[in-house]
Structures are given as structure tokens and as C-alpha cells.
Amino acid sequence: MVLLFFTDFGDKLVVVRRDFASFRSYLNLRSVLTTLIFDKMIRLSPSGYIKYSVGEIQNYLNNDVFHIRCIFFDVCDFINCPLTVCIAFFGLYMELGVNAFYGVVILVVVFPVNYALTKFSSRLEDKLLKIKDERLKLMNDVLSGMKVLKLYAWEESMQKLIFKLRKQELHVLRQIFLMEAAINVSFQLAPLVATLISFYGYTVIQGTPMRPDVAFVSLLFFGMLRISIYSFPRLLSDSIKAWVSSKRLVEFLNAEEKQKSHILRDNQDPALPVVSLKDCSFSWDGNVENPTLQLQNINLEVQPGELIGIVGRVGSGKSSLLAAILGEMERIENKGEAIVRAKSIGYVPQQPWIQNKTLRGNVLFDSQFNENLYTKVINACAMGEDLKLLSAGDFTEIGEKGINLSGGQKARVALARAVYMDAELYALDDTLSAVDAHVGAAIFANVIGEKEGEIYAIGTLKQLCQQKEGPFADLIREFMEKKLESQRSKKSSTLEVTLEDEDSELSEVFRQLSSSPLGDSLLERRRILEEQLAKAEGIQQQPVVTPKVQEVVTEDAESRPVHQSSHQIMHQHRNDGDVTDISEGAGYAGGRPEWTEIVGRLTKEEELATGIVKRRIYLVYFRSFGILLACIYFLFTFFGVSTFEALSSVWLAKWSSAAINSTAESRTHLFIYGGFNLVSIGAYNASTYFHEKLLCSLFHSPMSFFDQTPMGRIMNRLSNDIARIDENIPWATSYALSVFAEALNSLIAICFVIPVLVLVILPLLAIFLGIIHFYNVASVHFRRLTSKAVSSNCSFFQDSHAGADSIRVFNVVERFRDKSVYLCDFMNESLITEIYTNRWLQSRLDFISDVAVFICVFVAIIMADYKWISLGILAMVINNGYIFTGYLGQVARVWRESEVQMVCIERVTEYINNEKEPEWYIKDESRNWPPRAAGHLQFKDVCLRYRNELDLVLNNVNFDVRPGEKVGIVGRTGAGKSSLTLALFRIVDPCSGKILINGIDICTMGLHDLRDVLTIIPQDPVLFCGTFRLNLDPFNEYTDAGLWEALEKAHLADTVRELEGGLDYKVAESGANLSVGQRQLVCMARAVLRQKTCILVLDEATAAIDPETDSRIQQSIRTHFKDCTILTIAHRLNTILDYDRILVMDAGKVAEFDSPNSLLKNSDSLFFKLAEQAGIKHNGKEEI
């Protein structure tokens, strides 16, 4: 007895140690795979970047890596289980002779059948993960464009698309459940049938009486067989998932990577060209036969010190040329020669990449903080006034994708980051299109500056009147039809040279431009350029708003000339020695001021629940499971399985006969199979319920929730937590109940024959449960920490995927990889602590269970010795005691697992209970809604703030826009222009005042009732993963003819016709396979299709479009929306000079509201000053 006790307990200690070693190995593999996935994500080719969305990559990270854990956890069981089966059969052969081999025949039949089921299950698993990839890809697009969805009232349409994918996913998941049920039951039936046939052959065919000692030993070996084979379904299920996930990861890790960079970072010869492209052709997708995605036969040289401008129509390839220079496009067949010689490159993409950090953190980009350099960069980028408007200065958290900033502010933050990097070559992609004219002139003068020294820059231009003119541009390159057509050296202005060249296609562009409203001001702009630069001097001297920096800046800045390039600024301070810590709080005595942590914070800290998982969470799950199904399954498990198995054990002990065992055991497994089917149905119901509720809650959440919650945190709920609800919780719950029933069965059988043992077992069970409860508090907390760490990792991958091109160009891949490793280690710390506590629990529970069995067997032996019980009863007690110890350890494990997995329910329920925005639809028959004519818009004493603790962004705003009126809205950054739009669309409700449309207070309407009649073309175009048709018409309301008509009016039809599939062309995630200008034209086509529009809002809708196309678009707007009220937020004042009235905003108030003529006649008006800075003159007589 003592030997049996110590042997069994020693075996369990070894198993605990083995599992701990396996878990550590898994964490090492997880770290390696996470790093490999990150490296691959950064190195993906352009076609691979489009193919593998961030949603898919997060699926690899959260689900596929998790599935591979079985390589370590199950490898020992794969060796141990067959070995145990062989030992058990050998022991049975020694007891039952050749009759034992009847059971072998059963296993020979069972394994091939289950092999076929396993292969089918593998195909289902692969299908499931592909559908999940599609769902997460679409969900990532939806979350990225949630603001646009709300503005267009498209939430319902996107919900239907996601629900459709989810329904397919759950259908496959249910098939997998049924396959696993069939495999599980067949493996459980195998030892039963083997036992029956072997005993039948021994007693009936061979005719040998069944003695208790033979029955006792045989049952021990059959118990070993049963426990080992019971593990096979789990091993097969885990193996299928690991195999499928391994193939997916291998496919991803073998995906095509970017070509070896042609950027030479160690160039030492200043005489050689900085950029040299000779007979090169480039492609985005690596497809030689797809000319729409190519640059062909490019020849270009850029000498040191040159400043290059690239111009051309929408989609002509300007940004693509810049990408090709930076190594972001694939060189076709490696023809020609491509060399870029620069130690460092500063890159500002057309859509600025903003990290979810403070403004200072975005500028520093994890570099060391040099106070003097930082101050000069902020001032050179004209951000001093902006910092005064931010609640915590440059310590203000600007949110994911710069949600807290305007388009112009985001562009300047990205520019400041590039300037701070002290680069030799700067690539600027239409950087100044979103800023006011005078700010653009200041930045051009102070950052880019005159050609001198070692700095050289290449940039694309959309608004020539606003950027890179006068004596600054050495070469102008027009990019037409994906080919470099015109190259002219020049020393005079851009406009003059191109007009002198009659043969240049560029001259035709300028002729067309000159006949447009934009062209009239170009020559005048040249004359007043020096005046603008003089005015820019005042902008440059604006100090950073932070207290200590403000003291440092002025003296040094005043002693230097205005026209300093970024290279000069950085060179002068490279050795200042004022370099402090890398943290964002550097530059202050004592680090970051504490008040900025509160005032400047935008993102909410992820909340963690405390203590064990509340019982209401279990109730929520079982309600979603189905109360009736849960009750039936509970009855099946305890009153079916436990009762019949306990009776069969007692019966066998009394009669040592297999005949009666047949009926009881067969009923047991009928109950088990029925239970599995109930679990599959209930799990399907629960998965449907939680995903549907979570999705509905997200779509009904106010926009402030998405502003304050990182996307990675939300995606973690939609991917990792939902996957655990789909797969782990049903298994953990059903397995916990099954194992608990098995352990209870053995305990009931023992106590049934020896009731006195209840006095021994109950106190031990009380200790057992007390230890589990004590442990669960810590274990659940560690799982919450792990889930929070996973959210941080998801956000980091999301951020890095969006800025992969900037990370590569800035040559900071190593730095980001190190951060990825750090986040992975942080996640592993909570996991390893969790596993430590788990092993602590396991060893103590194993000891208690062994003590309980030792006492029971010892008492049974004493009673048998005194003839109080028979030897058959003694054999049954020993046998069930052995089974009890085996299952009790599993009870502790699965109880812990089910408790820990319930954290996923807890986290999802937290978002299901989010604060909701107002109702989408409110029926009111008395209203004349929707209006059938242009909207009459009134703002009456409107005050608005984004959060209760923040200042007003609109302060007593009053104005009245008559039906059909065209109103331009202008003002400096932070004046409140975009806030007017947010208030009109009820993205944020006013804290006081009223907004009326046709006399109806919009706060009394449903959100969709209101937004259905409003249309906006936003500054940042958002496209969704899917077809062109989906992006134009998600409700399938229009015919193809209607869609083509809208594309014609948006001047995009010719481009779409050239694409493969036309309207069915697959748009990549976030529209990555279209230019930014083309994306803006898609938004224009959307607006044309909305037939109920009574008020149209244009928010810098053509900022990324060339002047010629812009002129045509403006004409289309005036024609198509002639019966609508139009509000246009504009930085390019030329586009609104023919409007009825101009609304000038200043500091959240209406400063001026009058016709353009009247405002231009008044030299004291703000609009007059803005127009003057933009090069627009009015003599007081000319009518506009």
C-alpha cells in the first residue's frame, strides 16, 4: 500500500514537472513565431502586403500560434498512450490469455474509421480558419472606417456582411463539433467493447469461471486502457488544429518578400547621383502582364542638393514613383539599374502614419530627446500655435491614426518626425495639401528651404499654387501614363519654364490649369511669394507651448536666419549635447508633468476585473447556451452517465460478470453521445449569441468609444476571445462536467459499498475545494493580465502593419522588432506566472487525492480481512480508487481551465454592456421627413465639447443657411470647422443650443433618419475590403448602369474599366491598391449615388486630386448637387470663391458670415487675410 501510494504520487510529480517543461518550451516557440511573424509582416512584398491583411496576421498570432501548443503539450502523450495501451494488452493477455486479442480486433477497426474522420475534420478546420480570416479582414476594415460608416449610416449593411461570414464560420464549426463527437464516442466505446468481448471469450467461449482476482486485475488493465484511449480524441483534435495552423504559418512565412533594397546606406562619394534609375520598370503586384499597376522604362537621376517636384494627374503614378525610389515597389525582372545613395531617409507618406502616442512621442519616434533640436523642428513645422490648442501641449495623446488631430496637423506631425530624424534624403508625398496657404509657405521656407548644402528632397505635388514654386524647384517631372515624360533643368520659376516648352506635355497641363479658376492666381502667386515668406518668419518663431522648452527657444532662434533647411537646423544642433532620456517625458525636470497624464490622455486604460469570475458570467453563458439544453445536458451527465457507470461497477464487483455490464455501459455511451450533440447545439447558440451581441454593441457604440479604445483591443475581443468562446469554452465546460461525473461515479461506487468512508472523504474534499478556490483568485487575475497583454500586442501589430513602409524607409526595423519581443516577453511573464501557480495547485491536489485513496483502500483491506466485505467489493474499491485519483487530477485542471476561459466571456460582456448612442430610427408621423427639397440649416447658440473635462470647441455658434445655398467654411487650424460637421451629423451631440434642419431639431431624430439625408465626402477617404461594387453600393440598391453613371460623374469610370473585373475588381484592405486621389474619387461617386441628399458636406474632398481633375469635379458638384445645400470646408480658397456665402470660424465662434465679394472688399476681415496669404486679390470692383 505504501509503495503504491508513493509510486502513484511520484508519477504525478513527474507529470507536473513534464507539463511545466512543455509549457516553457511552448512559450519559447511562441516568442520565436511571434518575432518571425512580425519580421515577415515588415518584409512582405507589395502584393503580399495586399494579400495578407492585418486581420489575417492577427489570426495567425492569436489562434494559429495557440493551436501549435499541442506539439509540446501532447508529444509525451502521443508516446505514452500507445505504450500504455500495449502494456495494458500485455497484462490482459497474461490474465485472460488469447481472449485479450479479441479487443485488439476492435481497435484495428476503430483506428482506420477515425483516421478518415480526422482527415475530413482537418479539411473543415482549414476551411474554418480561412472564413475566419475573411471575417477578421472585413472587421478590421470596418473598425478602421467606423466614422465613415456612421456618417453614411451604413452600419446595418456591414453588420449583414459580417453576420453572413459568421454564419458560414459557425456552420463549419458545428460540423467540426459533430466530427469530434463521433471520434470521441468511438474511442470511448472501443475499450468497452474490448472488455465485453474479452470477458465473453474468457467465460463463455473458453468456459472459465470469472474469479474476483482475474476480474480485479483485468479491470485495472482495462482502466489503464480506457484512460489512455480516452485521451486520443483530444490528441487528434489538437493535432488537426496544429497541423492546419502549421501549414498556414508555413505558407505565410514563405510568402514573397520585398526585393533586396537598392538603397545604399553607406555612400561616401558625394559626386555620385543620390538617385539613379536607368531603364527600370516597377510593379506593385509583381505581375508583368498587368500594366495598370506598373511604372515602365523609368530613367531618372537626382544630383546632391537638388529639390525635385513630381506632378501629374490622378492615378498617373506620382506616389508610385516615390515608392519605387524608396524600394517599396518591385523591380520587374531586375532589369536596368536602380541605386539610391543615402545614409538616412526621411519619408512623409500622403496619408500620414500616426502612432497612438503623445504628439511628442510621434515626433521623437523612439529617438533620444534633444530639447533644442526638438524645439526648432516644432517651430519649423509651424506647430507652435497648434500645441497651444492641445490640452496638454505636446504631451497630449493624439489617438490611434491621429484621431485627435486635423488632416493638416497629422501631416505636420509626420513631417516633424522626418525632420527630427536628421536624414540626408527626404521623400515628401503631397505633404502640404491639407494645410493653409500661409502655413504651407512657412513650412516650405523653414523646412525645405532653398537649395543648399547636402540636403536633397523629392516630393509629389497636387496644388502647385501652394507648394514648391518660385526659385526653389530645379527640376519638374511630369508623370503621365506611368512613364517619366518630361525633364527640364531650370533656374526660373516652374510656371515659366513649362510654358516656354511648347513640346512638353506638361505645358498642356498648365494651359488647362490656367483656364481653370486655379490658374488665375498662379502668376500673382509668384509675385507675392517673397511676401509670404516674410510672413512665414512670424510663424517660425512660435514657441513650443511646454513651459521649459518655451524658455529655451527664443534666444537661439532669433539669432539665426529664417531660411534654414531641416538639414541645417539638425546639423547646427547635432553636437549641442542637450540629449536626454528616450522617454516622452524627457525635457522636464522630474520627467513628464503629472497633470498631462490626466488632461492629455485620450485612450482609456483597459480595465481589469478583480477576484474570481462572477457567477453571473456563468449564468450569462448558460443562458446563451440555452437553459433547456443546459438542464438536459446536466441531467444526462450526472443522472445518466454517473448512475449507470456506478451501478455497473457495483454489479461487476458482486457478480464478476460481463453480461450485465453490457446493458449499463452501452446506455452510458448513448448518454455521452447525446450529451455531445447537445453541447454542439448549445455551443453554436452561445457562439452566435456572443458574437452577435458584441457586434451589435460595437456598431451602436458612440464614436467616442472608438476614439478612446485602440483597435487592437477591440480586435482581440473579436478574434482571440471569440475563438476561445467558439472552441475552448464548450470543450472546457463539457469536459469538466464529464470528468467530474466520472470522478463522482467512482466516489459514489466506493461510498455505496462502504458508507463509513464518507466520514473520511468529505473533510478531504472540503480541503480540496478550499485550495481550488484560493488558487482561482490568483489564476483568473493572471489570465486577465495575459489578455490585456495580448491586446497591447494586437495594437502594436496593427500600428506596425499600417506604417510598415515608414518603418522600412526610416530603417528602424530592428527597433520595432525589439519592441515586439518586449511585448511578447511581457505577455509570457503573466503566462509563466499562471503556469507556476497551476503546478503549485496540481501537486497539492494530487497529494490530497492519493491520501484519500490510500485511506479508502486501507479501510477496505481491513474490512475484507475481517470478512465484512467480499474480495469482489475490495477489488471494486481498489479499481475505483485508482480511477478516482486519475480523474480527480483532471477535475482540478479542467475546473481551472473553465474558470480561466470564462475570462473571455467576462471581457466580451464588458463590451456588450457599452454605453450606446441614441436610437437609429424614431418614428414620428407628424414630421415632414425626409425633406424633398434642399435643407434649411440653422445653428442656434450651439456649444460643443468632446468630453466633459475638456473646453468648448464650439461656443455659441449661430448662423442660418438658406435652402440650396452654397456655403464655404474656412478658418485656421483648431477654429472649429470639423466640429461643425461632427455636430451636424450627431457624431457628438451639442451640450447646449439647437441644430435645425427645415425647422426640426436634429436631436429629436433617429441617427439614421438624420444621416440618410446628409452626405459627406471626407478628407480621409475610407475604402473597405471587397469589390468596387460593395464600396459604392453596400445595400445593392442600384443597377450597374447607375453605378457607371456615378463613376462617370466622379471622373473615375475610365480607371475602373481598365481594372480587371471592372465593378467586381477586388479592393484591398483600406484601398491599398488604389491611389489616395482615386480613393477620394470613389467617395465622390458614393455621394453621387445618395439620392436623398438635402445637405452635402465637402471636407477637403479633393485635397489629393490634381488641379485639372479638381476643376472638373467642382463643376460636377455644382451640376449634380445644384438642388442641395452645400457646405464646403476648404483650405484651397479658389474652390469656394463662387459660393453664395463664406462662413469664417475662429476659436470655435463664427467670426464672419457674408458673401465672398463683401469679405474681400473688407481689408480688415479674416477672410481677406486668408485670401491674401493664398495669393488671391480683389480690387473691390470685380465681381466674383
Automatic annotation (TrEMBL):
<keyword id="KW-0067">ATP-binding</keyword>
<keyword id="KW-0472">Membrane</keyword>
<feature type="transmembrane region" description="Helical">
    <location>
        <begin position="845"/>
        <end position="862"/>
    </location>
</feature>
<dbReference type="GO" id="GO:0140359">
    <property type="term" value="F:ABC-type transporter activity"/>
</dbReference>
<dbReference type="InterPro" id="IPR050173">
    <property type="entry name" value="ABC_transporter_C-like"/>
</dbReference>
<feature type="transmembrane region" description="Helical">
    <location>
        <begin position="620"/>
        <end position="641"/>
    </location>
</feature>
<dbReference type="InterPro" id="IPR044726">
    <property type="entry name" value="ABCC_6TM_D2"/>
</dbReference>
<feature type="transmembrane region" description="Helical">
    <location>
        <begin position="747"/>
        <end position="775"/>
    </location>
</feature>
<comment type="similarity">
    <text>Belongs to the ABC transporter superfamily. ABCC family. Conjugate transporter (TC 3.A.1.208) subfamily.</text>
</comment>
<dbReference type="InterPro" id="IPR011527">
    <property type="entry name" value="ABC1_TM_dom"/>
</dbReference>
<dbReference type="GO" id="GO:0005524">
    <property type="term" value="F:ATP binding"/>
</dbReference>
<dbReference type="InterPro" id="IPR017871">
    <property type="entry name" value="ABC_transporter-like_CS"/>
</dbReference>
<feature type="domain" description="ABC transmembrane type-1">
    <location>
        <begin position="670"/>
        <end position="897"/>
    </location>
</feature>
<keyword id="KW-0547">Nucleotide-binding</keyword>
<dbReference type="Pfam" id="PF00664">
    <property type="entry name" value="ABC_membrane"/>
</dbReference>
<feature type="transmembrane region" description="Helical">
    <location>
        <begin position="868"/>
        <end position="888"/>
    </location>
</feature>
<dbReference type="InterPro" id="IPR036640">
    <property type="entry name" value="ABC1_TM_sf"/>
</dbReference>
<dbReference type="InterPro" id="IPR003593">
    <property type="entry name" value="AAA+_ATPase"/>
</dbReference>
<dbReference type="InterPro" id="IPR003439">
    <property type="entry name" value="ABC_transporter-like_ATP-bd"/>
</dbReference>
<dbReference type="GO" id="GO:0012505">
    <property type="term" value="C:endomembrane system"/>
</dbReference>
<keyword id="KW-1133">Transmembrane helix</keyword>
<keyword id="KW-0812">Transmembrane</keyword>
<feature type="transmembrane region" description="Helical">
    <location>
        <begin position="176"/>
        <end position="202"/>
    </location>
</feature>
<keyword id="KW-0677">Repeat</keyword>
<feature type="domain" description="ABC transporter">
    <location>
        <begin position="937"/>
        <end position="1172"/>
    </location>
</feature>
<dbReference type="InterPro" id="IPR027417">
    <property type="entry name" value="P-loop_NTPase"/>
</dbReference>
<dbReference type="GO" id="GO:0016887">
    <property type="term" value="F:ATP hydrolysis activity"/>
</dbReference>
<dbReference type="GO" id="GO:0016020">
    <property type="term" value="C:membrane"/>
</dbReference>
<dbReference type="InterPro" id="IPR044746">
    <property type="entry name" value="ABCC_6TM_D1"/>
</dbReference>
<feature type="domain" description="ABC transmembrane type-1">
    <location>
        <begin position="18"/>
        <end position="241"/>
    </location>
</feature>
<feature type="transmembrane region" description="Helical">
    <location>
        <begin position="100"/>
        <end position="117"/>
    </location>
</feature>
<feature type="domain" description="ABC transporter">
    <location>
        <begin position="275"/>
        <end position="522"/>
    </location>
</feature>
<dbReference type="Pfam" id="PF00005">
    <property type="entry name" value="ABC_tran"/>
</dbReference>
<feature type="transmembrane region" description="Helical">
    <location>
        <begin position="214"/>
        <end position="232"/>
    </location>
</feature>
<protein>
    <submittedName>
        <fullName>Uncharacterized protein</fullName>
    </submittedName>
</protein>
<keyword id="KW-0813">Transport</keyword>
